[in-house]
User: What shape does this take?
Amino acid sequence: MNVGMNLGMTLASSVSLRIAGLLLVGATLTSCNVQGFFTSYGDDPVWVDPNASAETTADAAAGGGAGKAIYSRICAACHLGSGKGSPGANIPALAGSAIAQGDATLPIKIVLHGLRGEIVRNGVTINGQMAAWKDALSDQEIADVLTYVRSSFGNTGTPVTADEVAAIRSSTTDRLLPYTEAEL
Ligand code: HEC
Assistant: This one.
C-alpha cells in the first residue's frame, strides 16, 4: 500500500512537473516578442518594443495631442525628440524630410510596413531598417503620429486622417517586407 502511494505521488508530481515545464515554455514563447526588432546593422542596435503602444497615453492632453504622445513613446527612441535622428547611426531625420512632409501616402506606407535599404539624406548615406508598425498602431494612431511629425520640427505637411491610413492599409495587405525607397 505504501508502495502504491509512493508510486501515485511520484506519478502525480512528475505530471505536475511536466505541466509546469509546459507552462514555462509557453510563458517563454509568449514573452518572446516576434515583432521586436533592432534598428540597424551598426554597433549600437536600439531595441524598441512595438507593444509599448499599449501603455497609457496620459500625456496626450499635455500639448501636441495624441500624436505627440505616440511619437514620444515610439518614434523618438530612434528619430529623437527633436526629429533630427542620428544619420551617423543610420537613422534619418524627420525634421526637414521631404518624404515625411510630402505626399502622405509615402510616410503612411513607411509606418505601416517599415523601410529598409540605402537612402541618401542631406548627403549622408543611411542604410538602416525600420520595422512595420501595422500590427501595433491603429489607423487613428498612425494618422495622429504622422500629423504630429508633419507639423513639428519645422515641417509643414498637411494633417493625415484615419481614412487615408485605412485606405492604404487595405490596398497594401499583401506587403510582407519593409519597403525599399524604390518600392514606395
Ligand atoms: C527602431 C528605430 C525606429 C523607430 C522606432 C522608428 N523609425 Fe522611422 N526610420 C528608422 C530608420 C532606420 C529609417 C531609415 C530606413 C532605411 O535606411 O532605409 C526610418 C525612416 C523613416 C521615415 C522616412 C524618412 C525619409 O526621409 O526617408 C519616416 C517618415 C519614418 N521613419 C517615420 C517614423 C515614425 C512616424 C515612427 C514612429 C511611429 C518611426 N519612424 C519609428 C528607424 C526607426
